[in-house]
Specification:
Elements (H helix, E strand, L loop, with lengths): L5 H7 L2 H6 L1 H7 L4 H9 L18 H14 L1 H17 L4 H8 L7 E14 L2 E11 L7 E9 L5 E9 L3 E4 L13 E11 L3 E3 H6 L18 H30 L13 H33 L6 H26 L12 H12 L7 H12 L10
Helix pairs in contact: 1-5, 5-6, 5-9, 6-9, 9-10, 9-11, 9-12, 10-11, 11-12, 11-13
Length: 389
């Protein structure tokens, strides 16, 4: 769907430089500072920043179009920076005091995360003492804060899934990211030892999904903050899968147009198998975009109407996108498998797109084996399985 998107227009001007840095990102095992500076120069980090702090509060469809375009240039950069952006949406649901802590003196500040509830804590006066080696914190080298997950005992004898927000001064980044795909995302471990987290920097995840968080209602004119945090957090992953697949269509066409078979000299670009592969993958990617856009538009409409989705609606929103990622991966695989051995060299863009495509489907939110179970249970009227995130 074509929509006015000034931020995307500005972003397009820096994408060639970011694409030129894709190999450098993989070598560094983190996003190059130049890429961060370029993206901040066009204001992408302000996409979900509250207007009260100078942000743009753009719609989810506009944001996802930006992330898809960025992923086509360098998916590692898109992975890390998308999270730095979507975390602003999550942070806007915390208390005003916490938001002032983060953005009061530095509205350009961002947060990475490690939200799986593996943190350990002790109750103390005014908050908690937090400990843990918190893994999978993409883009942490470029963030001033971190959002970390833990399970907190409640008065009813159960546990609440909670988030704590911790400043960069209270943790150490471990240089342990060495992966096969998304190599430049800098998805490292945060080593946190005896960090005091005041109560105003703690929030229940459930409250952030139901409009009960401390920040709910702070921005009555907003069109994006009357919405659960999780769909915004998750949509970036789907957009990246789409962006990689859309880029692979172009790369396949460019390579195949001039490719000849080494032993026979036959022109591959006019061969029926290549044409059929390109056609089917094109249809899949177009279908994936249409399906994703439908879901993004529903997110935006619900938020603007200040309507929270039902459990069934949330199940469809999440699993629609996971299915779209699944078919994007199929489209990429079909094309890469036909490009020949030369494209397996590590300096070739096609092999990087192939690797990163598979990583976009490996996150807990895009794992279709998990999502298919979630939707299947919902369709059959069964209670959600607590072992499925």
């Amino acid at each position: 769907m074509k929509r006015a998107n000034p931020l995307l227009n500005d972003l397009q001007s820096v994408l060639p430089q970011i694409a030129a840095n894709a190999s450098k990102a993989e070598e560094l095992k983190k996003v190059p500072q130049e890429n961060i500076d370029l993206l901040k120069s066009v204001g992408l980090h302000k996409a979900f920043l509250p207007k009260a702090y100078g942000g743009y509060e753009i719609s989810l469809p506009e944001f996802c179009d930006c992330i898809a375009a960025l992923a086509g240039a360098c998916c590692s950069t898109a992975w890390a920076f998308s999270l730095l952006c979507t975390h602003n949406h999550q942070l806007a649901m915390f208390s005003k005091q916490m938001q002032d802590d983060i953005w009061g003196e530095n509205p350009d500040a961002t947060a990475s995360s490690s939200i799986a509830p593996f943190g350990r804590y002790e109750e103390t006066e005014g908050g908690i003492i937090f400990n843990g080696d918190m893994k999978w914190s993409s883009g942490c080298d470029h963030a001033e804060w971190a959002i970390v997950g833990f399970l907190r005992d409640n008065p009813e004898g159960a546990k609440d899934y909670c988030f704590a927000v911790i400043p960069r001064s209270d943790y150490t980044i471990l240089e342990d990211w060495d992966a096969m795909a998304m190599k430049g995302s800098g998805t490292k471990t945060l080593a946190i030892k005896d960090a005091f987290v005041p109560e105003h920097r703690i929030q229940k995840a459930k409250d952030m999904m139901e409009g009960k968080s401390a920040g709910y209602g702070l921005y009555p004119d907003s069109k994006i903050f009357y919405a659960p945090y999780r769909p915004y957090f998750a949509s970036g992953f789907a957009a990246m899968g789409l962006g990689v697949a859309e880029r692979m269509l172009k790369v396949f066409k460019e390579i195949t147009e001039t490719r000849v078979r080494a032993y026979t000299g036959a022109k591959v670009g006019a061969a029926t198998p290549a044409l059929m592969r390109l056609a089917e993958s094109t249809h899949q990617v177009m279908a994936a975009r249409a399906f994703m856009e439908k879901t993004w538009e529903e997110h935006a409409a619900f938020a603007e109407a200040k309507r929270y989705p039902t459990r069934e609606e949330l199940a469809y929103w999440r699993t629609n996108q996971a299915y779209s990622v699944k078919i994007c991966i199929e489209a990429v695989d079909r094309l890469f498998n036909a490009l020949g051995a030369n494209q397996w060299y590590l300096d070739k863009e096609a092999q990087r797109l192939f690797r990163d495509s598979h990583m976009t489907g490996a996150h807990a939110y895009t794992d279709y084996d998990v999502c298919a179970q979630i939707l299947g249970r919902e369709i059959m009227g069964l209670e959600p399985d607590p072992t499925l995130l």
